[in-house]
Amino acid sequence: MNMHNEPIVAIDGPAGSGKSTVAALAARVAGLQFISSGAMYRAVALQALRGGVGLANREAIIALAAALDISFTTDADGTIRTFIGSEDVTEALRAPAVGQISSVIAAIAQVREHLVDKQRQYGINGGIVMEGRDIQTVVFPDAEVKIYLEASAEERARRRWKELRAKGVATGYTEVLHEVIERDRQDSERDASPMRAATDAVKLNTDGRTIDQVVADIVQLIRDKRSMLAENREMRD
Q: For residues 156 and 173, is the Cβ–Cβ distance under 8 A?
């Protein structure tokens, strides 16, 4: 059982459910540290691409995960930045090529083992919001706040399609929808930590809801848990 003064908030959900956006905003509003587990897998993918390591070379990819030196910072304006060593790789991690292979890399059990160990280190003292696809089931099964975001494949594809168009990437909605459905299949069927909601997770459907509405729900859950933690401390004292 965790004995933190501040909660661990674990937010999971499929690609495009909005978890990265709302988790970062909720962390900022609640005054907690945001950690992106997805960025960690993309960081391994980036290192593999830069080093010319093919997906077939599993041992080399596992070694990259074991040696990964990754950290997160928050700018004064709330911007979350990701570093590999001293290099700011925030933008590099968003490259389509990185995203395309990160899901394959995340399915390698030994990669997940190394990165889960690193993720748990961030939560030793509580006070974090971490998002991903197995945070509330594998990484922090005892998290004080567990949230599983849901959204239809069509809604998630529309969001991704608009995002790509805004960046000048020419792609069709149908193609994006196919990628979303395939990503769901890979994440749900993988042997290592398949994507699913914890039995005690609060499920939030984001279809047709604004970011602010979802963030408000999450922040309220955090506030409720903080009150409970404070009451427990008073009882112990």
A: no
